[in-house]
Queue: 3 jobs
Job 1
Amino acid sequence: MTQLQLIISLLFLGCPAPDKGPDTLVSCHLQRVPFTEFCDYIHRESGVRTYFLDSWVQGIVVTLDADSISVKSAVEMALEGTGFVVSVWNDNLVVLPGEQLPEELPRFEMQQEPSDSSSSGTRTLTRSEERYLMGRKVDVIQTLQVGKKGAAGSGSWATIRGRITEQQTGEAVIGATMFLEETRAGAATDQNGMLSLVLKPGRYTAVFAFMGLETRKYLLDVFSNGEFNIEMKKSSIQMKEVVILGDRQMNIRFKDPGLEKISVKEIKEIPMMMGERDILKVSEMLPGIVTVGEGSAGLNVRGGNFDQNAFFINRIPIYNTAHLFGFFPAFNADIVKDFSIYKGHIPALYGGQLSSVFNIIGRQGNRKRFTAHGGISPVAANLSIEGPLVKEKSSFLVSGRYLFSDWILRLINDPVISTSKAGFNDFSASWNYDFQKSKVSLFVYHSQDAFRLADINSYRYSTNGASVNVSHYFSTSLRADFSVTGTQYAFNTTNQQEPPLAYEHAYRLGDYRVNADFTHDLMPKNTLQYGAGITFYHLNRGTVLPYGDQSLKLPVELGQEQGFESALYLSDSYDILPWMNISAGLRLTLFNPLGPKTVYTYYPGAPRDPLYINDSLRFGSMQAIKWYVEPDIRVALNLRTDANGSVKVAFNQMHQNLFMLNNTIALAPNSQWKLADYYLPPARSDQISAGVFRTFPKAGWESSVELYYKRTVHYPEFVDGADFIGNPLVESAVLPGNQHAYGIEFLLRRSGRRLEGWLSYTFSRAIVKVDGALPWERINNGLAYPANYDIPHVLNTVINYHFSRRVTASGVVTYQTGRPVTYPVSVYYINGIPYVDYSNRNQYRIPDYFRLDLSLTIEGNLKRNKFLHSSFIFNLYNVTGRENPYSVYFTLEDGKIKSYQYSVIGVPVFTITWLFKLGNYASD
Amino acid sequence: MHQINRFASLFILLMLFGCIKPYNPHIDASVENKYVVSGRITDVEGWQEVEVSLSSPIGSPSFLPVSGCQVTVLDDKGHVFSLEEYTPGLYRVWMGQQYLTHGTSYQVQVTTPEGEELVSGFDTMPNGPPLDSVYYAIVDVPTSNPGFFLKGMQFYVNLNAVGDYSQYYKWDVVETWEYHTPHPLEYYYDGAHHQVIPPDSSKMVCWITGLVKNVFTVSTKNLTQNIYNKYPLQVVDGRHSSRLGILYSILVRQLALSEGAYNYWEQLRINSNEQGGLYEKQPLAIKGNLINRSNPERDVLGYFYATSESSRRYFYKDVKGIDLDFTNYCCEESLGKFGWKEFFKWEYPIYYYYNELGLLRILNGYCIDCRLQGGTTVKPEFWPE
């Protein structure tokens, strides 16, 4: 008994003496108690009072089940998710909506020395402190201390890691730059908003910059390895100040050759058809990226076909980026945080497609408060909701879009159109959590399209994907990203135009990936990146089935395919000299088409036609049909010529294992993807590019000239009249083609001014040649011909003029050479009926394309305290009403040949879009 | 490709804002003329014809026959038939039934006056079933005025080839119709006035015969049975032509083809139907089965094939549900203020008549002479009384 007492008293002694005030431990076991009652209970148990306004907490019900919890935590838990914040005041608690009570007035000196950031305490200014300081703002340069004093020996190096977040939302800023004025060294943040730099301990002046955010300058006191946090504020429109924007810095110092970045601001300001903001349409305005016409979803990058682009949103690959014939993008612009297009030097991290990588990083969601954005245009609506789950640590973002155009279809006086339906929807949800050294994020994406043309045709397609990404910072110099993704793309077509031939076809593609990527700051000026990834493809090309009672169609099984892609890569970025950086990488991919599969073999020397099959090879389940080893070498050299200029040279090799079966001009919604197989080898491309970049900071201009030459081999070209629905043996319709593409791209851009925008001009060619040894292995008699998307001259101008903060006018001018076509050149008669004979493939061109669009954006008032901020976008698409021909075609009418041009949009189109968000003008 | 084009136009924008208009591209006129050889051997005893011509530039299309060729047809049993030219560019030979058997392969060899040797591949004569049935339905025909439709006759053909028959077919439709002019020739003026007694009505009734210019091909290769019901043939309405005015006749000729010949005609059909819509394929350069042995790099257009034929004739009169609203191109007017002096000599003769009120009315040629619309006054043999 005494023993027991002793133990109890020892235990008591071993515990910290119960604190007075908010750290007092209490036990709460409460079920659905009103908040006021909860506070009374707390007061009874601990003597701590909680101050609040009755009207705030009405309706808040507390359910809490905890032993030994501090009073402050208990109240915080009770208020979780309500947006109220608990502060300590004289050992009591104060509840305030959305902000912390300053515990003490921040110290404020002209040269604040040392400030609050260090490796241990990584606290930044609260909003109240900030506001307090801003009230008496002078040109203050704050000092950030990084590391511990005396921790590093003299002569050693320190690795510092910084995290940059946006002040208003708490979200990480991607691609923000830090620039040290003394050493002229710099770094840019990764997708978690982290940057790291190796430097000698000492004092530096650091400039932090990013497009659309206010540039900030700090004194950086570096003692040893350490971390720091920076919050950056959204800038209002810069009227007179000269600001060195991150983007311009990027261009000269960090930009990879052939990397394009598009800011969210640019997406928002460009006039858009139907008032829908479209990141892909914005990218078409950049040099080297073209589309063959309105209503075409495909993009052609530097002379590559539209299946040569890899699209990722939060690492989920997207196989169809269009809604409704490409008039709408498959991504909601509101959830885009960072949009990068790699078309020259593609980092070794990426493999897959030959021409480009479109990498979209979605926003994380506001980490400080709940908010919503939305928009309504004549045919579509979108809404996104976001907010913190655990303040400053975790947030979510949910967004959805819906198209409701049926009401317009019903107005059209055509029985076929008015009984048709068209619709799409997409949805995405993301969640993230910051642990001490790790960041975890989850992303789910769904997109669906359906259109039905009366009882004649119907098309449905959908994408469903999910990704889990974990970033872990092992040390200040080693970061790892692990990701697991799964995507399914599926479509379903019915065609009952001719009842006896009516059919139904369903297709499904699954893409499952696991990746591990490491970034290692080895030495100052030397960063190593390495990683590995595996991808498993499962394609069910489906069965073409008879549809309806009258159909006599025979089922055709197109078969299933599987493939396994495993890749290893290593790349190193090294500043050899202060003005010279080289980054060199090797990516080694092994691709195995896998069984089960029956491969037919053909008589030697005979065409690959079912008529000439002589044997078959049988491959068992998961048995490798072929071993394709694909080494890619990626090298880029950056030379800084002076403070405002640089020269970049790159050599880039890519391989592609997945192709699209499509021989139409535009990207059709029922195009099948197909893996490289026994007959179809992976395609390879080698690109050499060189660029000169120059900024003119005073005038706000940046400019670039880039040259490239690209050679592609084994790229599949389809024989005349190839049919992918009736014929399961793709090898009979495909021939390996060689492509040559070259071009020169000019870009002149101005940003951060009242008048901003860009002008780009591209001259480029894309030539294809299919010249096999045997006559049937040739297209166009083995002669070279221009690719369908060979568009030599492209001129794009985007101009934004900010009349005030509330009114912005924008204009877009697009000109491009008409795409190549095959024209009839002569007429011959059989039984008195004329027929036409065609020119060589793509020997002619349709007329040139020209379009002018205008838009006017009017923002709601600038009052600070408001619930909802609205803006209206007035859009006029194709102002001149020019009938840009999409195609020229010839028909036989009463025995005469007549030629017509078909324009997709031949009149001006006017739309008004209403956008809203919770909060005021500046809130995000 | 119609359905795809309409599918593209499904999206409101395309319907509201898309548009199609005539366009004349600039096309190089100096394209080399290519030889065109076409012909077929049918399983019906009679004249077998081969046509030799040159292609013409797209800007000035015309039939350029090649006369003076040596044309021979060979079969795989060693028979050789020499063809004789009976109109410029058209060569023919009478072949007896004993040479026209299913399973026999035929080839044509042409030596042009320039000495170039054009040779086709061997095409094997397939077996075809009798023509099953041809019928029509009254359908709405779209007009150039959107939302406004005309009633028309849509003809269909059924194929029933169950048995040991080819899977590839082509239909040729030869149409013939009778039409009339409203007036006989009675009065005319050519500086002096003439009256024909009795009035000459020999040019009041004409017949036009022609091949329907669409290509109709079908394959049952991917179908469960060698049957195809309701294959759509041509559409005829009562407004665009005088076809349905008096009596309309069609001769439907069903041709069983080999796979090669079908592929050729199918490609011609696809090319002729290109509509330029969003998801159109590029037109194809169509290769026939002839080569130029003297200059292998020079393409030869056309196809030489063997076929089984089955045909039947149909007549249609007073079709219910069709509104006749066609023009006969006849115009009448009164004599002008200055009388007969208004007419120039080159306009002579000026036809006229006296209407039921006894007024003199001037007539144009179409009112008197049906041949001006392209027909002939010679009645076809098969035409009923």
Note: Confidence is low (pLDDT under 50) at residues 1-17 of chain B.
Job 2
Amino acid sequence: MRFDRAAWWFVAPALLVIAVFFFFPILAALLISLTDFDIYALADLSNLRFVGLGNYLKLLETPQFWQALGNTLYFVVAGVPLSIGASLGAALLLHSRLARFKPFFRTALFAPVVTTLVAVAVIWRYMFNTRYGLLNYALGGIGIDPIDWLGDPHWAMPAIILFAVWKNFGYNMIIFLAGLQSIPEELYEAARIDGASIWRQLRSITLPMLSPVVWLVGILTIAGYFQLFAEPYVMTQGGPLQSTVSVLYFMYEEGFKWWNLGSASAVAFVLFLLIFAVTALQLRGRKWTAA
Amino acid sequence: MDRRIARGVQAPLVNGLLLAAAAFTLFPLLWMVSVSLMSPGEASSYPPPLVPQRATLGNYRELFGRAGIGRYLVNSVFLAVTVTAVSLVFNVAAGYAFAKLRFAGRDRIFKLLLGALVIPAQVAMVPLFLLLKQLGLVNSYGGIIVPAMAGIFGIFLVRQYALSIPDELLEAARIDGASEFRIFGSIVVPALKPIIVTLAVFTLLGTWNDFMWPLIVLTDKDLYTLPVALASLSREHVQDNELMMAGSVLTTLPVLLMFLALQRYYMQGLLAGSVKG
Amino acid sequence: MNGQGPPARWRGAVLFCAFAAALLAGSCRSPPPGDTVVKFWAMGREGEVVVQLLPEFERAHPGIHVEVQQLPWTAAHEKLLTAFAGDATPDICQLGNTWIPEFVALGAITPLDRYVADSRVVDAADYFGGIWETNVVGGALYGVPWYVDTRLLFYRRDLLAQAGYASPPASWQEWTRMMAAIKQRAGADRYAILLPLNEFEPLLALALQQDEPLLRDDGRRGNFESAGFRRALQFYVDAFRNGYAPALSGADVSNVWNEFGRGYFAFYISGPWNIAEFKQRLPSSVQGEWATAPLPGPNGPGASIAGGSSLVVFKASNKKAAAWQLIEYLAQPDVQQRFHELTGDLPPRRGPWRQAPLADDVYARAFRDQLERAKPAPRVAEWERIANEMRLVAERAVSGKISVDQAAKELDARADDILEKRRWMLARGGLR
């Protein structure tokens, strides 16, 4: 095989950057997670000790970590189906031959995706306001008492989920739309001739044909939702009562608030393993159902 | 006939639902603009007002005057443009090489990169911070630009697109005696133009909207980007809703406009990045 | 890009130069020529207001220019530590006094004993002893108190009178009797006292009233199994068990001021900022009916927490002399008084308390009294985390999941665990 000598000039700069600023830190994180890197070590590196799996074992005994994990799972389990459902619904509507002004609607539904999260969180925080918020005003219109959205531990996570779905569903919508467009029109023609209803067409053509895309989108969305951070950081600061502390938020506080960098790295790896395991499970489940 | 009736019901239903969905997504954005034009305290009344009694630009004047948001705007633009320009050079060159040039270990390296796509960036965050501290880049734009100079996603995007460049085109140029760099400049880059624009839009938006990393790396208030400045403003001025909304408008408007202008490229990249992966 | 002009690698090089230039532009900015620029970081409301006090300082000290950067309280701790890690600390900074031991452990701030010894303004004897002490770590002084914060009783005079008491309690015994009487009148859905379970301060105040310190062996181990702490925790837990206090967190009480106004509870342990809030937010019907009182102790008036903020100078500063001049200026009694008028913060030295308006303020009077009995929390870098554990364990004791003795034992175990690194540091002589 002939090698192009110039090739390295093209790849080396990028690979160097990725090696130094991505792979090296990841290996370093693995090492740091085995030490007790803290403020004493930050003041003087000679105060660093190797603790083996100590940070990991300690995490398992930390109730706040379990709570953060629980909150994150709550966000994933409730948020992902909602988000994918909204994306799929919107994509089906947009794909319908009956829909008008398609480019406008597509742009309108996608717009929240490109907005700056911190900025739109400011809007939503105000919409969630107990006294003056539009949400409670609208609910009041149908006779529902005001909800202390961001102040009540039971409602803070649903509020964040609602916000996240609003912000994100447009992204998957576009992917679904592309998937819908690739389904051969003849299948529908045939079904219509057979007199199949809209629902029947949806169940026996659209969803089966779309299922590989749904599967992929599911994997990506779950991995993304596990990385919840900015929403609680801006909206609730993890409160009330730690009810919106996610794993990443916990890592941020552990690492950059208390400067337990060793333990923060361990949290990051646990999160990584978790995402990895869930993804692997999904891939395996896919194979199993396909077989 | 049954079908015609069904159709008569369905068309308004589909469009009505779409309208409702659009209202759900657009309402907060429109309302943000409306509140940003209200005078201080006006939004804090019940029922919540939808439009200002008398529109005023006072909040924007206050933002540019006292809060000095102009500086953060400049910072954000500078960072987004610089990161985009630099990372395009690195990623396009590497993506092309992975697609069309042969070198030792090419496929193995590419597989390694692909596998690394699933690692959340946060894993690397702590050591990256310590590394940048050693390099003296904490609290400077270098701390944001340098780690962002190349990205796996960008390389992947370019490579997938570059695969479609016909080999004969490159071979012909080589036979004519053109250097690899000349080929890259005169044939490859023009051929990759659509994906370059796509990647540029992605990088611009991503850098503009990025929050966690600038929050950690930049300590000096003068260096803040718009989102970081907005977050710190919103923590200090919880009561000044109208002012915060004006800040939000200034932060979101540039990206929204850019998205509207370059929508086609953005959607293309989105599909190339997810479906083919 | 059509192959004309410089080849791609040169374009890359040009970009690189532009990028390097941008880096330089980003990292250095020139100060106004000739002036000494003192960088001063202050938090929240204080950061906003202190700017108004500076013109006079700059007039009196030509050649010194003060640049104030305001940090939001919620992000201040992170910001300061990243600044330290990134060698970007200011010259002078406002620091919550419980944070001082942490920054001493980092070696980030400079001892001030030498400056105080030569100063005619900063007179240690005029400061409240407990507050001053919070700035002393390992025998050296690291900060000068800027304002103080302590916790005491806010109470409803009318509810107390209805229960048959004309004056607030002075001892735990009286306090318990009053709470029982109030609870009896209030019925099932009202309470005598609010002790929010998400705050560690009320329990900490009760614990500081005891003779035994909270940590022993020079901060090497927890001392929560001491008779004193168990007594404090028992009192705290009993308040819930007897139904005097609702087992709620602050977040469950949506609006403390509304609830206090409605008589949902009669006692509330809180700090000086609530004087202004109560004046502003309580309904006018109860405006004359609330008052403040020093915290009752086990036998007569008790101690409370010595909180507040201090001003510190960073070790990395090369303008320490100018920074100290600013500290001295802000410590002057008349400047302290103006600062109080602007913020409502209470002065840490006795001088400003002798004059109006503070001397005449009926709500502040109890604070003046309490400050003489303010005690610092343990001064170790790990204290905030231990205090947080104290809150979590106490919450379990309140819910009845564990007994008071079990809670004390559990707390000692957790504290010893958190302090492990400190013991190791002390053993190798690595701590100042």
Note: The mean pLDDT of chain A is 88.
Job 3
Amino acid sequence: MTPDHLRTTLTDRMTEQGSKWLAGACASVAAEPGVVRGLFPLVGRRCGRGPLDPADPHGWTVDDAARSLLLAALPLTGAALLEEIGELYRTGDAAERRAVLRALPLLPVGDGALPLVRDALRTNDTRLVAAALGDYATDHLDAETYRQGVLKCVFTGIPLSALPGLPGRADAEMARMMAAFAHERRAAGRTVPDDIAPFLALFPDVTVPGPRDLQDVSTATTATSSTTDRPSPREA
Amino acid sequence: MRIFDPHIHMTSRTTDDYEAMHAAGVHALVEPAFWLGQPRTSVGSFLDYFDSLIGWEPFRAAQFGIRHHCTIALNPKEANDPRCAEVLQHLPRYLPKDGVVAVGEIGYDSMTPEEDEAFAAQLQLALTHDLPALVHTPHRDKAAGVDRTLAVVKESGIAPERVVVDHLNEVTVRQVVGSGCWMGFSIYPDTKMDERRMVAVLREFGTERILVNSAADWGRSDPLKTRKTADAMLAAGFTADEVDTVLWRNPVAFYGQSGKLELEDSDAPGADATYEGNSVLRGVRAEV
């Protein structure tokens, strides 16, 4: 996503009135950055909120894109830019916070915005978690936090196909964590999300829990607990 | 049956309540900012609470097919604590948010000078931000509190049809009915009002400008009191259309004055709905 790409896509997705408002808002922000604080909350009402690409419900929304253009118009760099977007994130509702996260790859902030990504990953709001794991996290987030974020997606039902960093950032440790998660689910007789299988396949050497790791489970449950990674009857 | 609960403190409720409310017909609600059982002592704990009302709580409600809006204010009780008074300075950044459909709960608890000041200042915020106001009335010395409330509302210059005076009963409704303000009734298991008495009030005063809520909070309360009132109305001979007026069209008309009600998606996603192709609830309910 680049500002030009967003602008082009948005023209088809907004009313003329909305486009006019956004152009004016961007010009105001470019002239006087402080006005962004008053304009940011209004974007959904002025520009709309639907998916930017109707064929891609996993992707950006119209308000995400419009807010990103407002942020890209800020004539700020370095610490001043980080302070402004940090304030917009902290004082934002869920949609505003999501938009700040989406916009990060468009902004010259280096890895300075990682605290915002980490904040979003601490929430249980799937919209924020998914937005936090966009292109910016792909490029800047450390491996340990990225893996935890991916596992959180698996737990909360965010499809892994929505993460641009996968499969590129998958590694053996991530596959091990997924295998352990799948193992726990099967031991509980619960289903395992389909979208982790391709990652397990990428790392065939990953050690899946063996009989030794199963001691606690096998004493606590009946014989239906699988001691291998075969699907449990309930998943069949 | 479709129900809009115009005053309910969902922060205090469990997901079981959300499920039961949706099953009973509650598709939209407004959660007013108010005090919690434990008094707050710092501005920060207010801001986290407000952030929850425009962040986490609407997300939680949406998982059960219920559209969540809120009102934001410094409540009268905590307006008396000088450590909390600074909250007023933070309100202007919350009031323009999408989900904030009124300033509230404002009004009186003990009718102190500090409450006078916070009440008047927040009515002015409602005017500045073009929002309706949700006014709490005191539980002690209620009739005097209602008179004083109406005087302050009148003095503020806000249009009475943009104000709801809440927690009324058979006595205090008579003070408000001629004011032009909306009349709110909180139906509780054993205090304020019950559904049988509510039906009697509706018989006497009609359905115009009347809002019925469950208020359900951390005290003994029942988030299904809106539905139970609707059932009591039907049993008493009110028509389905009259029930719809009181329990859906009236709250929509009142909060619609904010220009910010969003009801199109009120019934989605429900319990079996999906988040971008996957069930939102796949892990959330069991693991969080």
Note: Residues 240-256 of chain B form the longest helix (17 residues).
